[in-house]
Write a structure and sequence with these properties.
Belongs to the HMBS family. Helix content is 33%, strand content 23%. The chain has 312 residues and is α/β, with parallel strands linked by helices. The strands form 3 sheets. It has a 5-stranded mixed sheet with strand order 2-1-3-10-4, sandwiched between helices. Strands 7-6-8-5-9 form a 5-stranded mixed sheet, sandwiched between helices. The chain has a 3-stranded antiparallel sheet with strand order 11-12-13. Strand 12 and strand 13 form a beta hairpin. Helix 8 crosses helix 9. The longest helix has 27 residues. The termini are far apart.
Length: 312
């Protein structure tokens, strides 16, 4: 095994925080480590909306390449950014205990605009999932694209004539940047695996063994169920799919949904199953959802994508 263990990470403050958690946990197990920052495609292009970039793994590809080229030994990702199918030669090594799963609304003045469903407001987000859910609840609101790292997005919110912007709760709280003027959107279903940190490797036994103590079994199960749901619905960056699996009193509570891009169409499902019968929950829930209106939404999204002009 290469020592010190080289930990690949994006260069943003949040990514470095996540990689440092992995570094600290490995060093607690007695392993020497070093951080290797790598710039990702998603950090370079800050103007194009994520759902228009036309690729999966926009925040993970550069790290995956470095891993396969033996420039790093493990890579640390926000698990929600990772495609459901890992590249050949890369394996899941550990899923850390999950942080907050919900989204957060950061507002500039007050929340009066939330009191009237038919009111008008401008909300910023680059997430097609957040956009669709927001428009489903507030159909008259306007959505503006907002890209960049957390600091950049907070600064831009302050500069622009917007009412609010949506962030991941875990992202802001982990680097102590949650503003006082913010509230948890507990009605907004999160992205599959939101709030979870994933460690991947080339599958070498020594590295897998080193990472094993970092793995949280409950988080690994819940995120796998959510990602099975996403995979079965053939979801990607351009598909507004949400899922959340939680363990409570020996049962799995699962909620999943898919919406049209404009938020007008919505199909959702909820399941409660004993923990010992939960393995296929994500796949089964997705298949049932497709039969209950989800297929129509998926087909309409695909048709719209095929009809869209090809960008040079």
């Amino acid at each position: 095994m290469h020592l010190p263990i080289r930990i690949g990470t994006r260069e943003s403050a949040l990514a470095l925080w996540q990689a440092t958690q992995v570094k600290d946990l490995l060093e607690r197990e007695g392993f020497a480590t070093t951080l290797v920052p790598i710039k990702s495609e998603g950090d370079i292009d800050l103007k194009t909306p994520l759902y228009e970039m036309g690729v999966q793994g926009v925040f993970t590809r550069s790290l995956d390449i470095a891993l396969l080229n033996n420039k790093i030994d493990i890579a640390v990702h926000s698990m929600k950014d990772v495609p459901t199918q890992l590249p050949e030669g890369i394996e899941q090594a550990a899923v850390l205990k999950r942080g907050p799963v919900h989204d957060l609304l950061v507002y500039k003045q007050d929340t009066e605009f939330l009191l009237h469903r038919d009111g008008v407001a401008t909300i910023a987000t680059s997430s097609i999932r957040r956009k669709a859910q927001w428009l489903h609840k507030y159909p008259n609101h306007r959505i503006e694209n907002l890209r960049g790292n957390v600091n950049t997005r907070l600064r831009k919110l302050g500069e622009e004539n917007w009412d609010a912007a949506i962030f991941a709760q875990a992202g802001l709280e982990r680097i102590h940047l949650r503003p006082e003027k913010s509230l948890v959107l507990d009605w907004m279903l999160p992205a599959p695996a939101q709030g979870a940190i994933l460690v991947v490797s080339r599958g070498e036994d020594e590295i897998l063994s080193a990472c094993e103590p970092l793995n949280d079994a409950n988080t690994a199960l819940c995120t796998r169920i959510e990602r099975d749901f996403l995979r079965t619905l053939l979801g990607g960056c351009s598909t507004p799919i949400s899922a959340l699996a939680e363990i409570e009193d020996g049962d799995i509570y699962f909620s999943g949904q898919i919406l049209s891009h404009d938020g007008k169409q919505k199909a959702e499902i909820e399941k409660i199953l004993p923990l010992d019968r939960a393995n296929d929950t994500g796949k089964a829930a997705a298949e049932e959802l497709l039969e209950r209106g989800g297929r129509t939404i998926v087909e309409s999204i695909r048709a719209a994508e095929q009809a869209a002009p090809v960008k040079e």
